[in-house]
Amino acid sequence: MKLTSADIKALEKFLVDEVTLCDEYLKIIQQEQAAVIKLDSPTVTLLGEKRGVVVEKLSLLREDRALLIERITGDEFTRVTDVITQGCSPTDKKRLLALAQKVKARLALLDQQTKEFNQILNFSLGLVNGEISLLWSATQPVSRTYNAHGSFTEGVQPGPVRSGSSLGKA
Question: So what's the pLDDT on residue 25?
Fold first, then answer.
């Protein structure tokens, strides 16, 4: 299989665009992490939406690249590096393989940063849920705690005397 110059240019554009989008995603996720740490909810929401747009663009770009690979090889699951290795001249091969390695490195970093960010979010969510649970249980005279075996224990919270207060009259 020999790639045409149009195929090489299209493949190079896909790889360059993917590196650019990965860099944009990484920048957004770093900003989003900083906003979560600062408890800046509006910024977190805005950056989450931006991140979603970039993910959508990456998905569309990968679909288009798969269509190009399928048109060239007849199989959409052929690896880009295999297409480059088998169908390019030595100079094009060197340039495109370097770009493919950049994409691979960015995707690995993107995966790592996303996992780290999800850990931060899960930890924050756990803290918030824990505090809400404490506040809720403090407002309940009897709280039930369930264990892994399906049984529960009841705890009784001391409550103020309500007789004579406006709450007791209600």
Answer: 96
